[in-house]
Amino acid sequence: MTTLSSHNPSLKATILLILAFLAAFIPSSAMQALASEVIVVKNADLKPYREVLRGFKDTCGCNIREVTIQDEAGIEAVVHDSPDIIMAIGTASFKKVKAIRNSPIIYTMVVPWEVSLPLNQNISGVSMDISPETYIATIMKVFPKAMRIGLLYNPLNTTSFVNAASKAARAIGIELVTSAVSDPTEIPNAMNGLKGQIDVFWMLPDPTVVTPGLVDYLLNFSFEYNIPIFSFSRKYVEMGAIAALDIDPYDMGVEAAEIAKKISLGNSSAIRVYARKSTLSINAKVAAKMGLKIADDLLTQRNIVE
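Given the sequence above, the corresponding structure tokens read:
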């Protein structure tokens, strides 16, 4: 009988090579074995939500059952059946399931302030925020001469993000000039305090700062005092902001699936990540009116907002 010993090195090497080759496929097979069912809880049939789900399905390699928050029987099953993983798409869905402790939960498309509070350790997710480092780096690409970036925020909503952004700015020698507000009525005075102190205004997705009336005020302020606005959504670029970074919902679904695989392979710690893929939008016409020169390599057909 042939044995694996020093007398048969070629056979031993061959078997080791085969084992190494098979090991490359273990994560995929383990996913099937360990996460046989993922229940996706949805609260609206919006295009971004559909894109998240499409990215998740394309990447997960698992069995998926979809439930809407209007389906009371389905939600009850989520609570009692202890599925391998629960994925919540949207803020209302997350609120519906976040108290569940007997299954891992992954959230996507949840407003950032809803998940900035302490969460149970079985809750992982993909933030709707892009990392502060990516934001700061992109702002500096669009406005390379800017040295002071201003922003308004409500400490109840975005403190952790603003703290991380301040650290990221300091790391590259940029000053983040922040002003805390607790009510929308405080915005005009806070903006007046930023006059002459900042080169760019960074509009955060903070519900105290971004309301329909306040967005109009911020844009008018931008034009009056020639302070460009960098935002988080293309729609504000269409309204007059100079530039924005948008999240990519499909890739958020991919990220959620990657988290699901890690959980299925035994990861017991909460995994919470920023949205990693973004799209830059630029309003070149408004930039020109403000006398700003945008680098040619940023002005691609995809980026420019007419």
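Residues 35-128+249-277 form a domain with the Rossmann fold fold (CATH 3.40.50.2300). Try to locate this feature in the token string yourself.
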